[in-house]
Amino acid sequence: MNPETLLHLDRVIHEKGRLAIMSMLAASRELSFTEMRDALKMTDGNLTTHIRTLQESGYVSVSKSYEKKRSRTTCALTSAGKKAFASYVNLLEQIVRQNKPG
Questions:
Q1: Which residues, other chains included, contact 95 with Cβ-Cβ below 8 Å and sequence gap of 6+?
Q2: Are 58 and 43 in contact (CB under 8 A)?
Q3: In this model, does residue 65 exceed pLDDT 90?
Q4: How far apart are CA 61 and CA 63, in angstroms?
Q5: CB of 99 within 8 A of CB of 1?
Q6: CB 10 within 8 A of CB 87
Q7: pTM (two decimals)
Q8: Contacts by residues 84-90 (CB-CB < 8 Å, ≥ 24 positions apart)
Q9: Of the residues 5, 36, 74, 86, which has the fewest C-beta atoms closer than 10 A?
Q10: Do 78 and 58 contact (CB within 8 A), yes or no?
């Protein structure tokens, strides 16, 4: 294994909560805050913190709207987020291939 490869993993995405959020958003056009919170079993505060980190990194966009007089927050990957997630997954695949028993 080349330990140098591990150093290239995106630290913003690598945290398990943010990796879960990025994975869910990669599989959908957009998701509501509630859908993500319930699926990931996170508290509102924990999910908010992770989304804010991803938003500040330019990986996730957040939109607010109203549906049946209730506010609705939705999240989606930005183009930078899609690119960063694809790079992250490709690097993980490379690490797995390097360490696969041969």
A1: 1, 5, 6
A2: no
A3: yes
A4: 7
A5: yes
A6: yes
A7: 0.91
A8: 84/10, 84/12, 84/13, 84/57, 84/59, 85/13, 85/22, 85/23, 85/26, 85/59, 87/10, 88/9, 88/10, 88/13, 88/14, 88/22
A9: 86
A10: yes
